[in-house]
Amino acid sequence: MIEIKKATYKEAAIIALLGRITFTETFAHYFKDKQDLLDYYEQTFSVAKIESSLKKSNNVYWIAYWNKLPIGYAKLKINSNTDFIPNTECAQLQKIYVLKDFLGKKVGWLLMNELMAFFNQTEQSHIWLSVLQENKLALSFYKKFNLKKVATHNFQIGKEVFNFNMLSLAKKNNSLKTPS
């Protein structure tokens, strides 16, 4: 049984660990220098960083549990504007990660539906995210939620440069999906 809960400060270590594991499962093979990957973990998935992020009122996290075992999480950042969308009321889907062994269980759908329901209650007019161009599974997933490509950009981690698609959805076009 899958349960989605809004995360609290007390779950920072769970989110940090899920972040490291899911990032490794999805992206580690792109890194030639493993130290770059380890440095990124410390910058992005340290418990202190997640604790700090959870304390900010514009960040909202959800954790997915499978029989009480944490298996994924999502993060929405309110008031996260971007130059690629000419609007000042944007929310950013910063993270949605699910452990590889649970990808076929519609966990991503449930996390996304929670996140989108919350987004729909905000004053934000657009939601946006960046997704690695090579991540076909993620691109297919976001397409099912009507997110459209609005730009491309690069992001560097250590020595590696990654190409991303920026996807966006205006609230007026949003319709929640259910797992099929």
TrEMBL record:
Q: Which UniProt keywords apply?
A: Ribonucleoprotein, Ribosomal protein
Domain N-acetyltransferase spans what residues? 21-174
Question: What does the entry list under GO cellular component?
Answer: ribosome
Q: Return one GO MF term.
A: acyltransferase activity, transferring groups other than amino-acyl groups
Q: Which residues form a coiled coil?
A: none
Name the Gene3D superfamilies for this protein: 3.40.630.30
Q: What domain of life?
A: Bacteria
Q: Name one Pfam family in it.
A: Acetyltransf_1
Name it. Answer: Ribosomal protein S18 acetylase RimI-like enzyme
